[in-house]
Design goal:
The protein is mainly alpha-helical and 145 residues long. It has a single domain (7-143), classed as Lysozyme (Orthogonal Bundle), CATH 1.10.530.40. The protein is built from seven helices and five strands; from the N terminus they run αβββαααααββα. α1 packs parallel to α3 and α5 runs antiparallel to α6 (110-116). The radius of gyration is 15 Å and the shape is globular. The two termini are 24 Å apart.
């Protein structure tokens, strides 16, 4: 059974992704809709409703939950797990897998992991204020008992 994100983590994703019912290009130039949903099913002029957005969000989070569950060997609190799911959801499983953050997690260096949230604040090489705020919130959740 895959571990699940907690309500605080889910609310964090919803807050930072925001709900967009019409497809748009995110700062990375990727077609996006709902709560940060991307994929072949997202295209220009696509319009959805909130129910569709919530369904896709839970599916997308499930992918991140499974990946974080399968990638971590350290026991994590619910807040630590949820913060990592939030990060993985946003940066993608490939980036998460290749990250120094995951290497530090495998070493049990939780302080180092917390500091690594600050690394993921750029899109296409440009520092984005929204990502700074998001990573601060994820890091705070990771450090919250």
């Amino acid at each position: 059974m895959t571990r699940r994100i907690n309500k605080v983590g889910l609310d964090l994703i919803k807050r930072f992704e925001g709900l967009r019912l019409q497809a748009y290009k995110c700062p990375a130039g990727i077609w996006t809709i709902g709560y940060g949903h991307t994929g072949k099913d997202v295209f220009p002029n696509l319009t959805i409703d909130e129910a569709w957005a919530n369904t896709r969000l839970l599916e997308d989070i499930d992918t991140a939950e499974r990946f974080v569950s399968n990638s971590t060997i350290t026991h994590l609190t619910d807040n630590q797990f949820s913060a990592l799911v939030c990060l993985c959801f946003n940066i993608g499983a490939g980036n998460f897998k290749a990250s120094a953050l995951l290497q530090l997690l495998h070493k049990g260096d939780l302080a180092g992991v917390a500091d690594q949230f600050k690394v993921w604040i750029k899109s296409k090489g440009k520092k984005l204020p929204g990502l700074v705020f998001r990573r601060t919130a994820e890091r705070d959740l990771f450090l919250k008992p």
